[in-house]
Design brief:
The N and C termini lie far apart (85 Å). The chain folds into two domains: 391 residues, Alkaline Phosphatase, subunit A (3-Layer(aba) Sandwich); 61 residues, no CATH class. It is 29% helix and 15% strand. It is α/β, with parallel strands linked by helices. About 4% of the residues have low confidence. The strands form three sheets. The protein has a ten-stranded mixed sheet, with helices on both faces. Its cofactor is Mg(2+); Zn(2+).
């Protein structure tokens, strides 16, 4: 049911209430000091489609789920002390040259580029930016801007490595958690080099690309980078055509799709010692954190279900997957890198999918769940050695307004009718499937229909699916070197700041990183040193006697 609009609490009517709160925040700000240490661990949470308006609405929804009016609520990610805005749209300035991450530095001359061919980007080009450190063309994964969408031959020689790949080469454990298929554009940018984000399996590739030697994204998931933890959806792209799905064996639409006859799950298991594969929550729960070095969990044939549609007995939540991943990855004394993708318009990954379908409640619940994963990750790690970053790849044409009163349901109606004498919801979309005209006018919004999880909010322009938007997205950070996230930055800066914080390539030879290694090595005594100390102790005892 819709919350009843509330009158402001009496305490809020006093200037002292606000003055006291502001002083408390000032005192906290004055004690804030940069943590200028090397990050042992990095966790990157990416809310697919989680723009600023989605974050604001999710904050209110979280508060209303807890029984409050919502506006005064706070998301876990909003407690992070450092913040920046990332530019996700634009065009390439004339003469700008894009260099791979290992050839760039943090000077302004290397950061004045945008998503190369789109003013408003997609999840593949943005994923390449914040994971690989270079801007790229839309719909391409893990490739520089020299690669052309759909042209296999432009892949070779234009590959760029992600921070996940470089963390693994540095000896850290690495993992991916997503509510989409693990071959989706956002997680795919962490390990794949593909001229098309849609080449999920070989069955999705044109014959020319296969003939020219390109590999599908699922194949690259298993063979490109030694990933310790892989959790999400996407079973059908991993097994041979007509292989029955373990969860839906009677539905041929969920069968495996591979034409090459390869069972990539079996290949992955046979290549890893201590590896486990699971496909439901029961299997995930049964995995002992200290008994496996590698874990793959694929919980749906394609994307995982929206949180509001999830079967809690068979499918794990993004919170549960995040916890399992961290418990496994943190056993590595060298640290870990974890990429968590919650699609707001898709789930973590699905935030994005919810918005694309014009179903705001699905999208906002995904954002709330991603924030719960952020909170749980904070409980399982320490900001003294773990850099946690929360951001989005892009936003959506999603907004809420209408002069609604305090405590109005975030999915509720505006208090006054529109010029056409019909009610409308506070939440609206600039375009999408919610556009509707009957008998020359739009239908009036009403309750309780507008509160339904599958209700489509009205849109101004009719489109089959709602689109991304091009405004900047927020970057929130806490932990070592989190202060590097400040001001307005290009989106590809995110990968560089994380690499610098953890002393990963191309910053592994920075003076601060060399000094940290000397200190680390200096605290470890060699066997020869221990024997010498033991001899001195024995000599001292003999002299004393």
């Amino acid at each position: 049911t819709s919350p009843t609009p509330l009158s402001p609490p009496d305490a809020e009517k006093s200037p002292g209430y606000w003055n006291k709160g502001a002083r408390r925040r000032l005192e906290l700000a004055l004690t804030l000091q940069p943590v200028a240490e090397q990050a042992k661990n990095i966790i990157l949470f990416m809310g697919d489609g989680m723009g600023l308006s989605t974050i604001s609405a999710a904050r209110i929804y979280k508060g209303q789920l807890a029984g409050g009016s919502g506006e005064e609520s706070l998301l876990a990610m909003e407690t992070f002390p450092h913040m920046a805005l990332a530019k996700v749209s634009g065009s390439v300035p004339g003469g700008t040259v894009l260099l791979p991450l290992h050839e760039t530095q943090l000077d302004p001359s290397c950061s004045q580029t945008y998503t190369i061919d789109r003013q408003v980007p997609d999840s593949a080009g943005t994923g390449t930016a914040y994971l690989c450190g270079v801007k790229a063309n839309a719909k391409t994964l893990g490739l520089s801007g020299a690669a052309v969408y759909g042209k296999c031959r432009t892949t070779f020689g234009n590959e760029v490595d992600s921070i996940l790949h470089r963390a693994r080469l540095a000896g850290k454990s690495v993992g991916i958690v997503t509510t989409t298929r693990v071959q989706h554009a956002s997680p795919g940018a962490a390990y794949a080099h593909s001229a098309s984000r849609s080449w999920y399996a070989d069955a999705n590739m044109p014959k020319e690309a296969l003939r020219d030697g390109c590999k599908d994204i699922a194949y690259q998931l298993v063979h490109n980078t030694d990933i310790n933890v892989i959790l999400g959806g996407g079973r059908m792209y991993m097994t041979p055509k007509r292989t029955p799905d373990p969860e839906y064996p009677e539905d041929p639409e969920q069968n495996g799709t591979r034409k090459d006859g390869r069972d990539l799950i079996a290949e992955w298991l046979s290549a890893k010692q201590g590896a486990r594969y699971v496909w439901d929550k029961k299997g995930l729960d049964a995995v002992e954190d200290d008994s496996v070095s590698h874990l793959m969990g694929l919980f749906e044939p394609k994307d995982m279900r929206y949180e509001l549609n999830r079967n809690t007995s068979t499918d794990p939540s993004i919170v549960e997957m995040t916890e399992k991943a961290i418990r496994i990855l943190r056993r590595n004394p060298n640290g870990f890198f974890l990429f968590g993708d919650g699609c707001v318009a898709c789930a973590g990954g699905r935030i994005d999918h919810g918005h694309h379908s014009g179903r705001a409640k699905q999208a906002l619940m995904e954002a709330v769940m991603l924030d719960r994963a952020v909170a749980r990750a904070g409980e399982l790690t320490s900001p003294s050695d773990t850099l946690t970053v929360v951001t989005a790849d892009h936003s959506h044409v999603f907004t809420f307004g209408g002069n609604t009163p305090r405590g109005n349901s975030i999915f509720g109606l505006a208090p006054k009718k529109a010029k056409d004498k019909r009610a409308y919801t506070s939440i609206l979309y600039g375009n999408g499937p919610g556009y509707s005209i009957h008998d020359g006018s739009r239908p009036a919004a009403s309750l309780p229909a507008a509160e339904d999880k599958d209700y489509r909010q009205q849109a101004a322009v009719p489109l089959e699916t709602e689109t991304h938007s091009g405004e900047d997205v927020v970057v929130l950070a806490q932990g070592p070197m989190a202060h590097l996230f400040h001001g307005v930055q290009e989106q590809h800066y995110i990968a560089h700041a994380m690499a610098y914080a953890a002393c990963l390539e191309p910053y592994a030879t920075e003076p601060r990183c060399r000094a940290a290694r000397r200190v680390s090595h200096g605290t470890q005594c060699s066997p020869q040193t221990l024997l010498a100390l033991l001899a001195l102790c024995m000599a001292a005892v003999m002299v004393g006697s």
